[in-house]
Amino acid sequence: MVQNGSATQDIAALAEKWREKKGSLIMILHEIQNQYGYVPRDVSLKLSKLLDIPMARIYEVITFYNYFKLDPPGKYNISICLGTACYLKGAPELVEEVKSMLNVKEGQTTSDGLFHLDVVRCLGCCGLAPVMMVNGEIHGKVKREEVATILSKYKKEG
Ligand code: FES
After folding, report:
1. Which of 123, 133, 138, 142 to mutate to test the pocket of ligand 1 (most atoms within 8 A of CB)?
2. Is the peptide bond before 72 cis (omega within 30 degrees of 0)?
3. Of 120, 126, 133, 141, which is best to mutate to test ligand 1, by the most ligand atoms within 8 angstroms of its C-beta?
4. pLDDT in tens, 11-65
5. What is the pTM of this model?
6. Relative to the CA of 86, which ligand 1 atom is closest?
7. What is the pLDDT of residues 4-22, one digit of tens each?
8. Quick one: which of 1, 32, 55, 91 is 20 to 30 A from 68 by CA?
């Protein structure tokens, strides 16, 4: 990931690289997210000035595609499946439990940077519904009252 000191230079180079190309804004945002893990607001501001594109247009693109993130990733990234099987087996309750326990909304990272919450569509293990994944580790048939235990395991690891 990019260190802040070199960020301005990197953004200028990126803008230059893609300036004349079709669909350049999306390609630049992809490169930014690959470097930072998300699209930081100050980087969007620099890009807006360099390319003379309104911030509103940049945010329109970022929010249209689920892929782009506005918040930094957490140390532990939680994905809760809201695909049909998981939804019917109570996944919305898991989302509510995580949100209230960590005080975040979908797409946000806790203020200590430890957890990030996303909802996703089908993790490919519907037989284990409802499914919650933390940094690639699958937790299946999760009950609402088990969420605290699962999160505390990661909290302990720090
Ligand atoms: S619907 Fe949740 S894993 Fe497939």
Report:
1. 123
2. no
3. 126
4. 888 888 877 777 788 989 999 988 888 899 999 999 999 988 999 999 999 988 8
5. 0.73
6. 2
7. 445 666 888 888 887 777 7
8. 91
